[in-house]
Amino acid sequence: MALAIAFLCLSLISITTHASDSCSLLSSSDDSDQLAIVHIHGKCSPFTSPYQGSWFDTVIGMAKKDPDRVMALSMLARRQKEKQIPIIPSTTPNVFMGNYVVRAKVGTPGQVMFMVMDTSREATIVPCSGCTGCLSSKIFAPKMSSTFRSLNCEAYQCDWPFAYGEKPCHGSGPKYPCVFNRTYGEDSSFSATLAQDSLTLGKDIFPNYTFGCINDVSGKNIPPQGLLGLSFDAMSLLSQLRQQLSMFSYCLPSFKSNSSTGSLMLGSESPDDEPQTIPTTPLHHITPRISLLYLNLTGISVGNVLVPVSPAFDMKTGAGTILDTNTVITRFVQPIYKAVRDAFRKQIGKSVSSFSIFDTCFTSDDKSLTPVVTLHFSGLDFILPRENTLINSSNGSLACLAMAAAPSHNENSNLNVIASYQQQNFRIYVFQGDLSVGIVRELCN
């Protein structure tokens, strides 16, 4: 299926990486159109990476956290009641679950926060003054903003965080703040007060944006300067700004370099502009209970071998295939991954070995040996370039299939996750109007 779409860009970034100026995009001026995406552990990130060694080692370190991420996504997909982890102050540095950050401003005047971008979470959250367990030096100060206001239990927005559980407000009237708890990852949680203030992305200012003002943190995985939620629940960016925005797109930077910079674009359809044809595939049954970016993956071609795909989307169990920016390498349920891996091994015709988290590695002296991997969605074929299929060691002598099996240690193992490594150097469009996703090749960096 193809969508003829024309959009009026509200925040447009077209970036070509140069060593001298790629990181300067993160400190752009207030009148800039640029909203950069950078690796959270890369050269341009404001955070200190816990990983030492090569960028290859860093990517492996990030990917080792994927099983926890996938299990957390499986719980979200099934809409299980989220675990109530006690809010205990953290005494160790955050090892946060997030791959990419964007520069945003909260409040009036705007206070700069480098937020993790997450396509599988709906809420925007920021650490606020007085937070227990928040270790970042960047804390949003509500008292310094002239437009900040907290929301109480009577506000209609107070229903948003509790669509899948009990509403914790035990009273009515302005003296009862709207406080909610959420988990993030497998072992972390936070408590936040629902609030409103101006959110600035690039040069666009969105007043009265509803977000969570974090009061307490437990665990190591809460993004230290907050999170920008890009899924489809009521608290998400597109839902709150549906009068101004009807789409967003992102282009994730290359994993080949820790200094690469990608881009985030926000926009609305405009029939007056020249149309651009973008191949799209439908999003599945977005409802108040299902907000992840589900696509209908029908098969996977490995060279000339077609691997059929299951499970199909199931609203009751959360089974299916999603796009996610904070999982590093694509994870398929065990039978699908085994079929893909075996077809790949057979076609390269070389002996393979395991290395770290990868089980299909080989000497990479002949690039022509690599079979093309294509993900077949309804109406769209996502053809993976070699650099999105393989990950190479630092010296280039070893190549590994950059995919793995989804964790299978409990009943939740029914979710395929198309991860950020496979999305690099493609622009991913998410259209709210007809609930579809477009995928177009683009050199993001």
Automatic annotation (TrEMBL):
The keyword Protease applies. Residues 262-281 are annotated as: Disordered. Residues 100-440 form the Peptidase A1 domain. InterPro entries: Aspartic_peptidase_A1 (IPR001461), PEPTIDASE_A1 (IPR033121), Peptidase_aspartic_dom_sf (IPR021109), TAXi_C (IPR032799), TAXi_N (IPR032861). GO terms for molecular function: aspartic-type endopeptidase activity. It comes from the Eukaryota. The active site is at 118, 324. Residues 1-19 form the signal peptide. It holds the Pfam family TAXi_N. One of its GO terms (biological process) is proteolysis. Keywords: Hydrolase, Protease, Signal. Belongs to the peptidase A1 family. This is Aspartyl protease aed3. It comes from Thalictrum thalictroides.
